[in-house]
Each structure stands twice: as C-alpha cells, then as structure tokens.
Write a structure and sequence with these properties.
single chain; 155 residues; mainly alpha; two-stranded antiparallel ribbon; 5 helices; 2 strands; 82% helix; 3% strand; elongated
C-alpha cells in the first residue's frame, strides 16, 4: 500500500495514522449508508410492482382525472420505469458498499489492487447515479408536460 499516499519522508511513502483513520471512518459511514440505501431501494422495487394498485387508488380518491386515467391505463410502463430506477439505485448502493469494504480491506491487508478497485467502484456509482438523475429529471419534465396537457381543455 505504499502508493496510496504521495506524501514522502526520506524518499519513502508515508501514511499518517490520521489518514488511515479517516479512510476507516469513511468506510464505516459508507457501509451504513449503503445498507440503508439497499434496504430502501428493495422496498421501492417491491412497491413499484404494485403501481397499478396505487394509481387505481389515486383515481378512486381524486375522481375522474385524465392524467390518472392515463397512468392507470399504462401501469405496466410505470412498473417498468420504477423497476429500472430501483435496479439503477441497487447498482449505485452496491458499488458504494463494495467501495467501503474494499477500502477497509486495502488498509488492513496493505493491498494496492483493492485500493484501486475500491475507487473504481465509487467512480462507477457516481456515474450511474448521474445518469439516473438526468433520466429522472427528464421523466419529471415529461410528466409535468403531461400534467399541463391534461389540465387543458383541448387534451
């Protein structure tokens, strides 16, 4: 693990105990947040499969609404979108969990390959999350456009 830090003393890499403690702390917090995210996303996945029941209940609660009617008619597409979102989030949280476990193992085993792989997992999780956010914003804009269209009298 001699190349984990570029700070050198007498031409030899040096790792301060403070740096290693910070990496261990980051690892512990990331494990907690990853497990919490995985549980939350699993719940989203199972509840997303019940989207037709949810849109039906909303239609019953709000009466005759064109947008809710459109959603309940296309509940299969809505279920697919929710499932894709949940799978993307599962990948994000799983990659962060792998990051935290590999960073801890790289510190304890003095393993540079695990260290590099850990950061690769973190980088990939941020890439997928960025794609997820762009897709979510796009879908929100489409949904908002449909909402505006459904409230107009010409629709």
């Amino acid at each position: 693990m001699h190349s984990l830090d570029d700070f050198e003393i007498n031409k030899q890499p040096h790792f301060s105990d403070r740096l290693l403690d910070q990496w261990k702390t980051i690892s512990s917090l990331t494990v907690f947040l990853s497990v919490f995210g995985l549980v939350q996303t699993t719940i989203l996945l199972f509840k997303g499969l019940e989207s037709s029941e949810i849109t039906g209940a909303l239609g019953f609660a709000y009466g005759k609404n064109r947008l809710l009617g459109m959603l309940s008619n296309n509940s299969f597409i809505l279920s697919i979108l929710i499932t894709l979102a949940a799978v993307a989030l599962l990948y994000v949280y799983y990659s962060k969990l792998r990051f935290s476990l590999l960073i801890r193992r790289s510190i304890t085993d003095d393993n540079q390959e695990d260290f590099v792989e850990a950061w690769r997992n973190l980088r990939n999780s941020f890439r997928v999350f960025g794609i997820y956010v762009i897709a979510a914003i796009t879908l929100y804009m489409v949904f908002f456009g449909l909402l505006l269209l459904s409230s107009s009298s010409e629709f």
